[in-house]
Amino acid sequence: MSKEHYSGYEDEIREYRLSFNRAFAYTAIVLILLGMGLDYGLYPHLQYLFGAARIVVSLLIYCIIIILRTKWGQDRAEMLAFVWLLLPQIMITWMIAATEGATSMYSIGLYLAIFGASLGLPTTFRFNLVLGFVTFYFILPHVPFTLKALCCMVPLSLTH
User: Fold this and answer.
1) How many CA atoms, within 13 angstroms, populate the side-chain half-sphere of residue 53?
2) Which of 35, 45, 67, 138 is deepest in the core (most CB within 10 A)?
3) Exposed (0-12), middle (13-18) or buried (19+): which is 32, by Cβ within 10 Å?
4) pLDDT one-digit tens code per residue, 50-97
């Protein structure tokens, strides 16, 4: 393949990833804000605190979307995607720790955030590997796991 054709291909792939990046960021904002209904139903005493966290994270993701529209942001799209993907994971991990720990309903949200990022975004294997590593080693240890919680999680994961 000639350099000219390869360069065009790289530009096309870059634009494709950038458009998916922005679309998924908007989707993340909507899902994060819709989670306020879950807060209201499950933890009404924490709904204002969790709602404030959801709004802050959504605004931070929106700022990243704005940055992605600049030349500087487009040159760093992969790094910015990494940042905005970690923001909801950090928020959800904090919410898990603030509620019942590993048995919290927010654990499902964390799984969805991790799998949605890995499966939905057209990223590289290296990107997904690093994102998984960061999540596993820096975020999940802050979730209080108990033996009872682990026993409850194992049958659920084996049956589905």
Assistant:
1) 19
2) 35
3) buried
4) 999 999 999 999 999 999 999 999 888 888 988 998 899 889 888 888
